[in-house]
TrEMBL record:
Gene source species: Rahnella inusitata
Superkingdom of this protein's organism: Bacteria
InterPro entries (alphabetical): Glyco_hydro_3_C_sf (IPR036881)
Alphabetical UniProt keywords: Hydrolase
Protein name per the record: Uncharacterized protein
SUPFAM superfamilies: Beta-D-glucan exohydrolase, C-terminal domain
Amino acid sequence: MTGGRPYNLDGQEDRVAALIVAWIPGQQGSSAIAMAQVKPCA
């Protein structure tokens, strides 16, 4: 999910395993997210 303002997810955040939010990611933000190696928090 990308954006520059708060979103109302209408409870959907309780139905997914994870959320990735890029706050105002810029022109290459979606590419950076797609190529990132996500490491879970311990």
